[in-house]
Design a protein that fits this description.
This protein has 331 residues and is of the alpha/beta class. Helices cover 41% and strands 15% of the residues. It has two domains: 103 residues, Ntrc-like two-domain protein (Rossmann fold), CATH 3.40.50; 206 residues, Rossmann fold (3-Layer(aba) Sandwich). It has a seven-stranded mixed β-sheet with strand order 8-9-7-10-6-11-12, with helices on both faces. The two termini are 35 Å apart.
Length: 331
Amino acid sequence: MAVYDVDQEYAQRFADVVNQKEKMPFTVVPFASLELLREYAGRHPIEILLISDAVPGEETGGIRANSVVTLSEGEVVSVAENDYPAVYKYQSADSVIREVMEKYCDRPVGEMFVVLGKRARILGVYSPVGRCFKTSMALLLGQQLAREGKTIYIGFEEFSGLQKLIGGEYKNDLSDVLYFLRQGSFHSMRLRSLVCTWKDMDYIAPVRYPEDMEQMTGDEAGRLIEQLASECGYEYVVVDVGRPGRNLLPILDCCDVIYMPVRDDEMSAAKLEEFAAYLRTTSCKRVEERIQRVRLPFSGNLKRGGGYLEKLLWSELGDYVRQLLKGAPWR
């Protein structure tokens, strides 16, 4: 990806930020002048050219690129046919990349969209027991693992609360991911236009409407998780399994390890016993073998208010998860 902007510092800062993330199969190369860009384009293929809309069209002649997106300093409006699509430059680098990838991916899928490498380790967090810090644990796992390697978090909760906790608005979510999966056009580059980032961890925003979860099949959920692990360049995939009904076993079957938070009260024990009986009835021995029951410490200092996830990282529960990962037998 070649980047040229009339503000030379912008192009350099953008390239520095994106290249440090190492989460996309492009190297971003900034250019300080059009002459240098033309010289480079004459000797090297450019897949995407990201260029300031302040540069007159006639000055970009001879610069060959498979796809061109302009950096706009003002409001981005619809463009006429044969004009280049535009993104607003004064937003986060993550947001710019998401929009660029969205425009770039409106093209046929090819082999170049698969990021080859070792399959990611898939960690699931599931429990038939309620109010057991399941989602908190999954988020902690994702954040801790993201400090070691590229990690993505995906949740199958109908009402996750994630948007409220992390803040911001989602342009795309799990519903959009499932749409592209069904169309056969979901791949690593498409993912870059859909994924969000919290600190070091990528995540797919949860569904906006619970009805979308009801339409998801177990086969779709399994294919999505496996594709994230095998084709998108991640080292870890953390799955907050939620309560996906008939899709439960296909999701659990994808996981290399399943952390199951439990509680000691009688009602919780009864639910755990019923779940164990269900696994035996359905002959899911390999799922049963991957389950690791955990008793999470109650973090009484996590009172309501702002910064819940920040407090969570350094809570007693955060310490527990760090120790759990340190001694994990699958590592």
